[in-house]
Amino acid sequence: MASAPPARQLHRTLTLVACIVGSGMVFLDGTVVNVALPAIRHELGGGLAAQEWVVEGYLLSLSALLLIGGSLGDLLGRRRIFAAGIVSFGALSLVCAIAPTIDTLIAARVLQGVAGALLVPSTLALLMDTFPESERGAAIGTWTAFGGVATVIGPLGGGALVDAASWRWVFAINLAPAVITLLLLRFAPPGHRESARIDFTGALLAALGLAGPVFALIEQPREGWSSPLVLVALIAGLALLAAFLVWERRAHSPMLPLDVFRSRNFSVGNGATLAIYGGLGAFTFTLPVYLQQVAGYRALQAGLSMLPITVVMFALSRRFGALADRAGPRLFMGLGPIAAGAGLLLFVRVNAHPSYVADILPAVLVFALGLAMTVAPLTATVLGAADDRHAGVASGINNAIARVAGLLAIAVVGAVISGYFASRVDGGVRHAALTPLEQRSIADGRRRPLTVSGSTPRVQATLRSASVDAFHLAAILGAALTAAGGLLSLAGIRNPRREVRAGDCPGGALVGANREQRPESPRAGEREAEPVGAGAG
């Protein structure tokens, strides 16, 4: 086949760069803020609930609207929606950077997630419009690989910015790539429009349905389960989620076509995704907060503590993906999450003054090894289980479920450890003769889990001990979630015939699987369906 003219090839390359840089901002903002949370709390106030909302507000809108963003691009034009998402994301990043209050920051984060939901599906669709079929796989693989890099270097970059300048630069840094992306976007093809129906009702039901339980779980430690606000939010949210499922079953153009879940491997794989990425979300939220607010790490040190995960993933995931291609995914999807859960369980050895080499590094390495065993086989299995006509939808669903998993896990684990922290504080001072000043300090401190601040050394020791216990509980919960994903996979996944390799899907490309050098498979001659979102891997 003749190669494209140099000018056309240059335009394709610049379009790919625009898609990588634009979507990279979205992926980066999903993790970069975690190490900035203690600095945000110090300047803007608020306890663990406020820190959760800074993360959860973004994940909530992003995960609820991700599928609908692809439909808007089909209807109104992919380049136009991509540009709108970039402009909105950059502007809202500036609002986050100059936010005078915690409430302003949370509101801007919610809107940032909306912009991200417009942006990400349009990047993949633009790549489909830009590259011929012979080059499309390599382009999507490159896009996903850089997206994975952005996700995993987020804590490291965020820590460096917080220590060198301010937490506000974690958001302000987005302005430069937003401008670069807009300049490069003019080289992208305008694309074509399709007569797509947009499931606005489904999107609204999903967003409100997720918001209700998340709000209830985050606010419950402060308001209590007897609070009408908490109860109404929880019950209404669950009712709306049920209504969402009913609507999607009856809608003519649903954002979540339920018939794809008839495949056993697709259903079990997404259930495993929910559990595994739930444990991952809880871990990446609590560890940086604990290391900074209790163990005394600087933001950069907290970010560096998770760097071995990146190294292990890129060193071993491709090998595990290739092994899963030959031996089948079931064993890897089963033992990998169990190993990752064992790594999280090792964090119960961590005290208030941990040694990184002796206490934290072994746990991080075991967790990373388990994750490396899991990611490529999991994503390949989910996408390979769907019919070819649903390949894009399957990718989008798996990505959305991974985001929802982190959203719900942070809310649930935050609620549980908040209650446990308060009970441990109460138990620590039950028989102590406290001064009035110490009583006020304890009353204030018990509402701020994973923090050590008090009027006297006795109060500080009580809060520190309770924080360690709460962190250990978070590690146990994360381990249980992750291991549950492995057990579910062992029980439910069936090793298929070799219909799809790890490199056949964007999730496999994230960990280095080669899409171009693969043997023919029963699906080899079929057309490639257009993806609407990245795989969870």
Q: Under the CATH scheme, which class of the largest domain?
A: Mainly Alpha
Rounded average pLDDT: 82
How many DSSP-defined strands? 0
Order of SSEs: HHHHHHHHHHHHHHHHHHH
Model description:
The chain has 537 residues and is mainly α. The chain folds into 3 domains: 7-187, Growth Hormone, Chain: A (Up-down Bundle), CATH 1.20.1250; 199-252; 259-414 and 476-508, Growth Hormone, Chain: A. It has 19 helices and no strands. Mean pLDDT is 82; it is low at 503-537.
Provide the fold topology.
Layout lengths: L5 H24 L7 H8 L3 H29 L1 H20 L4 H29 L2 H32 L4 H4 L2 H11 L14 H24 L4 H23 L13 H30 L5 H6 L2 H21 L2 H16 L10 H30 L5 H39 L6 H10 L11 H36 L13 H5 L27
Helix pairs in contact: 1-5, 1-6, 1-8, 3-4, 3-5, 3-9, 3-16, 4-5, 4-8, 5-6, 9-10, 9-16, 11-14, 11-15, 11-16, 11-18, 13-15, 14-15, 14-18, 15-16, 16-18
Short description:
With 537 residues, the protein is mainly alpha-helical.
Essential attributes:
disordered C terminus, Growth Hormone, Chain: A, 3 domains, mainly alpha, 537 residues, 19 helices
